[in-house]
Amino acid sequence: MQKVNFLVFDNFETLDLFGVVEIFGRLKETYELTFVSLKGGVVTSSQQTPIVTEPISTLDPSGILVVPGGLGTRKLVLDTQ
């Protein structure tokens, strides 16, 4: 089973995330889906959809990494963490 890590952040675009989740989610026997953010906890999309995440420190580096788009990316471009 391959892990798919979705890195989300405040103000991500709901469609950019859940469109991809829909595809990987249909292949439950092949992929395990995990949602991560910098600190973990609840992250909210630009459409006000909350999603519970794990801290990025739990990310499996051997898995696939998916990063959705959205206005929240503008703030993260300058993040040096």
Structural topology:
Blueprint: E1 2-7, H1 14-25, E2 31-37, E3 41-44, E4 50-55, E5 64-66, H2 72-76
**Distance N to C terminus:** 30 Å
| Counted beta strands | 5
Helix count equals 2
**Level of helix content?**
10-25%
Encode the helix/strand succession as letters. Answer: EHEEEEH
Mean pLDDT: 88
Strand content: 25-35%
Helix-strand category:
alpha/beta
Descriptive labels:
five-stranded mixed β-sheet; 2 helices; alpha/beta; globular; single chain; 81 residues
Descriptive notes:
The chain is of the alpha/beta class. 21% of the residues lie in helices and 32% in strands. It contains two helices and five strands, in the order E-H-E-E-E-E-H. It has a five-stranded mixed sheet, with helices on one face. Helix 1 links the parallel strand 1 and strand 2. The longest helix has 12 residues. The model has no long low-confidence stretch (mean pLDDT 88).
What's this, in brief?
With 81 residues, this protein is α/β, with parallel strands linked by helices.
